[in-house]
Amino acid sequence: MTDAQQLFDYARKQFNDIADDVERHFEQVAGQLREWMPADASFVRQQPPPKRLPPPTTLQIAQRWMLRHRALTAAAVAFLLTGSVGAFVFVKSRDQKRKRRARRSTSGARTDVVVIVGAVANPLTSALYLDLERRGFVVYVVANTHEDEHYVRSQSRIDLLPLNLDLVDPFAAQDQLARFRGLLEREHFAFDGAEPHRLNFTGLVLIPDTQATPARVDEISSEEWSDALNAKVLNTIATTQLFLPTVTEHKAKVLLLTPSVTPALKLPMHAVENTVYGALEGFTSSLAAELKQDGVAVSHFKLGNIDIPSVTAKQRREGASKPMLKATPLRKLHDSVFDALVTKRPRRTLHVGRGSLAYDIIGSWMPPMVIGWMMGAAKRPTVVVEEVHEEEMQGSQGSLTWEKIDQEA
Description:
CATH superfamily: NAD(P)-binding Rossmann-like Domain
Pfam families: DUF1776
Number of strands: 9
Keywords: Membrane, Transmembrane, Transmembrane helix
CATH topology: Rossmann fold
Largest sheet: 7 strands, parallel
Low-confidence stretches: 377-409
Structural class: alpha/beta
Helix content: 40-55%
Oligomer: single chain
InterPro entries: DUF1776_fun, NAD(P)-bd_dom_sf
Number of domains: 1
CATH architecture: 3-Layer(aba) Sandwich
Mean pLDDT: 82
Transmembrane segments: 71-91, 112-130
Protein name: DUF1776-domain-containing protein
């Protein structure tokens, strides 16, 4: 063995001894530390538990299912859409074909009574009370003059009767209404030997004449304002006040029918019509709030463009141009009035006629400048005064057309 080999072995032995001494020292230190430190040392940072995701909601589950089954989802949506449209069409067609008839007693006699208040010769009013009589109601039309009474009797309908009401003399009007209440309270016999029955006051239908000749405010005299407010507003309010005790006693419906296209837009040259409409609308709102406590329903019919056959035929004879948009048939109004009379809780406001709802929304939400621009209010209108006969005024009160409004505006 050479000297170099001996030196190398000696150095390796010394290195191993030093390494063993260091390892023993570290083991001794580690053992002392383990004995000195407790097992649950507070300064030892513990790892937080893993976060758990919340369970998916029903909407998330449905969205995931639709994403996985896109074809089936599209088919289901298409089926629902076509089914909804089909069901809507079916319900509408069945509702139109449904026969609307008033109730009768066991002996076949009519029992439901309706009172109509309005211009007797007005085409809209006359069409309404004739239709209600055909549907089985006993219809009383308030007649303030002998001419109105004669006009009602000339219709030759057994259950269409005039109801005289003198608004000038309150005491006479009270006596006339007392006879009407007595008619409702006593028993009636359809024929000899039939079971007795009583009449039921079903509804009070108010059809005031709100239209007036277009004119500027400075051209309307105080007498014209007084006549318009007395005839169109005060007479309606006074008649309603006279019938209120009977209406409350029998829980009858109160219906107000007014044209609403022109008042909704608040057009110029229509100050009288807008004022009358606003007064009647405010009166109806207060009346509905008061009668609600007594269980009486009040409905306001806002009428648009309605096709009245008598008015349309007269316009054709006079060579009037055919309107661009077809008006709503008169039967729609008759069905709506019948449903409001027989429904337990009719709606507070009903829109009947083309343009009624659309113009109501436009007049409520659009600024006046936009409405004026739409109706051409920037140009000062030229009013042509023509001689208008009484029968022509009566014939024009039942229908409002968009073309007429555009011309006047």
